[in-house]
């Protein structure tokens, strides 16, 4: 008869009526060990029992024998314990309990041995073709070549861009470019220019004689304090080039077109202090440059708020190099950064190429 | 997981995965295919699989492939219950190990797999739960049932021998 939660009350009553066999008492004790929540109820039965009997022999305890804790392992659950044992699921107390049980019931030792034998032991099976599973980082040849070429091109371009001669001018992009027409109907002259969008079509011409135009080379620029003077000259290209190269002399003065006498002041889109005036008779009083150089220097000066020479800037070069490096990073998954260093005057004095694995620093030439 | 770590996993665990699969399906070619497939899956997932979880990941992948295959081919008959009365055996066993593996083959696929994970790889119930997707209690029950079956099978053979 197995004790369970459906029939334990019967056991409690029988226990207190002392009608349980030794085995049943042991089973009940084991049950109570497993269901501690029922111990209080079991005690209540004892109290009820004592109330029911008003005549009491108070020395009962002296008569009783010490109840040796009974094993919870029995015939019905021995296998579970044996399995739990080989699975390592038993606590140390349960382990001792099982050992005691096995000592008392050696018949289960053969079962114990069989369960032990049911454990699988390491097999000498090997997978022989491990090489086929392994991977190596192989870059396809075309990617290798492409990357080599690209890397080489990047380095060459970068070097060319950074150290190039001053043949790349800085194009100010902050100025909204739009065609400008300056005219003086009274004088019958007109100057048209669109220096930033179409710098090569700027021309000055006579309204009365529209065919007579001045190419862009005939527009010169000169600084006058905080202003940029744009002047139109009507001289041969060679003379202008000589002028810009500071090779002109007094005998080689450039003559302005007489029909262009005065041009009204005009303001470029974002540059408020540019005036355009007529170049009158000579250039000796001013240091002239080409219109593109003049605009470049003037705008750069305004942007940086510093006096700088009319030189080509590294800014554009740097932007190109930066764009190039970003492209290389994107294609090849690298993380190279270009970090320029500027001095107090806003000039780039050094740059560094940085990545997780290297850092290359270099000073720029002081031009 | 780096390429180096992946290759280390091949050296460390390919035998284990192969043994686990081969013992379950008894087909060398299919077992090799599953090992290849398992490693290929891990290679594709190498960026998200941590090296220390690689073994568990591979056994999980191998187990799923294995169970799918077994169920598809219905090699094991009833997947859920072993025929515990089927203790028939050959009397030509050369050793107990052979008996045991013959007995293992009679277990349902799930019981066989969890028992192997437990015995060969030493996984805990919890780890087997993660690999197989079975509940921990279910894993335990499967292992206990398998033990009983194996013990009875071994006992019946010993009685004959």
The major pleated sheet of chain A works out as: 4 strands, mixed
Mean pLDDT of chain B: 80
Whole-number count of domains of chain A: 3
Specify the structural class of chain A.
Answer: alpha+beta
- Return the average pLDDT of chain A rounded to an integer: 62
Rg of chain B, alpha carbons: 17 Å
Second rung of CATH, namely the architecture of the largest domain in chain B: Orthogonal Bundle
Described by strand count, sense and barrel closure, the largest sheet of chain B is: none
Can you offer a commentary on this structure?
The complex is a heterodimer of chains A (367) and B (161). Chain A is an alpha+beta fold. Chain A folds into three domains: 110 residues, no CATH class; 87 residues, no CATH class; 125 residues, no CATH class. In chain A, 38% of the residues lie in helices and 14% in strands. Chain A has twelve helices and ten strands. Chain A has a four-stranded mixed sheet. Chain A has a three-stranded antiparallel sheet with strand order 1-2-3, with no helix packed on it. The longest helix of chain A is centred in the middle third of the chain and has 23 residues. About 24% of the residues of chain A have low confidence. Chain B contains seven helices and no strands. In chain B, helix 1 packs antiparallel against helix 2, helix 2 packs across helix 3 and helix 3 packs across helix 6. Chain B is globular and about 50 Å long. The interface between A and B is medium-sized, with 27 and 37 residues.
Question: What distinguishing features does this structure have?
Answer:
heterodimer; A: 367 residues; alpha+beta; 3 domains; 4-stranded mixed sheet; 10 strands; B: 7 helices
């Amino acid at each position: 008869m197995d004790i369970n939660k459906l029939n334990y009350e019967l056991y409690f009553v029988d226990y207190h009526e002392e009608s349980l066999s030794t085995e049943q008492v042991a089973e009940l004790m084991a049950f109570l060990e497993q269901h501690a929540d029922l111990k209080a109820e079991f005690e209540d039965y004892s109290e009820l029992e004592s109330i029911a009997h008003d005549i009491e022999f108070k020395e009962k305890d002296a008569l009783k024998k010490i109840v040796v804790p009974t094993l919870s392992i029995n015939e019905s659950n021995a296998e579970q314990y044996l399995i739990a044992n080989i699975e390592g699921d038993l606590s140390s107390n349960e382990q001792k309990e099982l050992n005691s049980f096995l000592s008392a019931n050696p018949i289960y030792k053969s079962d114990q041995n069989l369960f032990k034998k049911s454990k699988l032991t390491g097999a000498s099976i090997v997978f022989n073709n491990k090489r086929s599973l392994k991977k190596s980082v192989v870059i396809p040849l075309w990617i290798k070549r492409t990357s080599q070429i690209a890397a080489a091109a990047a380095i060459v371009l970068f070097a060319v861009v950074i150290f190039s001669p001053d043949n790349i001018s800085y194009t100010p992009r902050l100025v909204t470019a739009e065609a400008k027409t300056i005219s003086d109907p009274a004088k019958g002259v007109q100057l048209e220019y669109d220096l930033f969008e179409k710098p090569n079509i700027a021309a000055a011409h006579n309204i009365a004689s529209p065919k007579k135009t001045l190419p862009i080379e005939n527009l010169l620029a000169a600084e006058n304090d905080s202003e940029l003077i744009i002047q139109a000259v009507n001289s041969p290209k060679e003379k202008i080039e000589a002028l810009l190269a500071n090779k002109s002399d007094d005998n080689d003065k450039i003559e302005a077109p007489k029909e262009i006498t005065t041009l009204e002041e005009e303001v470029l889109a974002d540059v408020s202090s540019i005036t355009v005036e007529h170049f009158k008779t000579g250039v000796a009083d001013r240091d002239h440059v080409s219109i593109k150089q003049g605009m470049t220097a003037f705008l750069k000066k305004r942007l940086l708020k510093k006096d700088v020479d009319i030189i080509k800037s590294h800014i554009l070069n740097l932007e190109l190099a930066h764009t190039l490096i970003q492209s290389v990073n994107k294609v090849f998954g690298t993380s190279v950064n270009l970090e320029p260093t500027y001095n107090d005057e806003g000039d780039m004095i050094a740059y560094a190429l940085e990545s997780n694995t290297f850092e290359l620093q270099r000073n720029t030439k002081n031009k | 997981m780096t390429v180096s770590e992946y290759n280390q996993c091949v050296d460390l665990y390919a035998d284990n995965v192969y043994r686990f699969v081969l013992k379950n399906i008894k087909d060398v070619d299919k077992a090799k295919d599953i090992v290849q497939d398992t490693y290929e899956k891990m290679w594709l997932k190498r960026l998200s699989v941590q090296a220390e979880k690689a073994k568990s990941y591979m056994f999980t992948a191998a187990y799923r492939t294995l169970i799918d295959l077994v169920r598809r081919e219905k090699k094991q008959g009833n997947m859920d219950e072993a025929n515990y009365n089927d203790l028939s055996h050959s009397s030509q066993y050369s050793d107990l190990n052979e008996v045991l593996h013959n007995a293992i083959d009679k277990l349902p696929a799930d019981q066989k797999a969890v028992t192997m994970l437990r015995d060969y790889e030493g996984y805990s119930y919890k780890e087997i739960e993660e690999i197989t997707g079975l509940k921990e209690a279910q894993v335990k029950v499967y292992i206990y049932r398998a033990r009983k079956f194996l013990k009875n099978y071994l006992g019946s053979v010993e009685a004959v021998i």
